[in-house]
What does this fold into?
Amino acid sequence: MELAQATAMLARTPKTLETLLTGLPPEWVHRNDGPGTWSAYEILGHLLHGEATNWLPRARMILEHGADRPFEPFDRLAMLTWERGPVDALLTRFTEARRASLDELSSHDLSASDLDRRGRHPEFGEVTLGQMLATWVVHDLTHLAQVGEVLARRYRDDVGPWRAYLPALDRVAEAE
Amino acid sequence: MELAQATAMLARTPKTLETLLTGLPPEWVHRNDGPGTWSAYEILGHLLHGEATNWLPRARMILEHGADRPFEPFDRLAMLTWERGPVDALLTRFTEARRASLDELSSHDLSASDLDRRGRHPEFGEVTLGQMLATWVVHDLTHLAQVGEVLARRYRDDVGPWRAYLPALDRVAEAE
It folds into this structure.
């Protein structure tokens, strides 16, 4: 993993989601696939929550304490209890939070060898800063994919016989 | 399916893909998951090819000939034989082609009842214009999801133990 490429990808995500979701009608942005599945709005909330409580806090922990102190567990479901507001406001908050995260990351002026610095995951044990940053990128991209699919399934019945060619319409939605 | 909502979603796709893919390094934009799977570049090519040969040609066939004449089969793999150019050029072509498609669709001034007009799919038999337009939207969104996942899998090994929490990294890539 090359740090500059990873952070450049992370910097794209808010704009990509903004393009896809700004002003989208509630029937689209709040639809989910049943109990235990997430709407596009909730996925965006999950990403926003990660900015505040997951990625940078863990990077700080690695840089300050190494593997001596474990990360705080990340509450993947926190956003489900939030009061629902307009999606555009959530997009703005995510854009700002991501920018702040990347600014702070950049301020550490990390070298390639810093990516080998170790932290302690509460479940996995020792992990590296590089693994965590790669995970951040993957997490963005797979949640973007999840947004695309939950939006697509709004038209599951509308496509008629084409459903046979669109396996994603019948994929069990996962809240990853 | 509400026509204005469907076309508004179709109009978002080029910009969403542009945000995600413009200037992306070749190691990312051309990676695939092995034989029979598509890179982000190839998925974009598949979408571009559909503009020229699939969606509007079929809409025209429905509006001009109803169910009397079957659609031409769509060559899903045409883009795999194209000469590879810069992704930014392909994004520009897709943006222009999509705009032309939506302009032409808009010129037909379709009413809600037009969505019930029938055409003949070479395999499914009778289908409606509305089903075809819903399929177009779903096709965009599921291919956007596919792009997100093929990009994500570049870091399959880099994430270390987090792979256990990221099932999309081990999902068999499908060329849908």
Observations:
- Chain A touches chain B through 49 residues (CB under 8 Å).
- Chain A has one domain: 3-169.
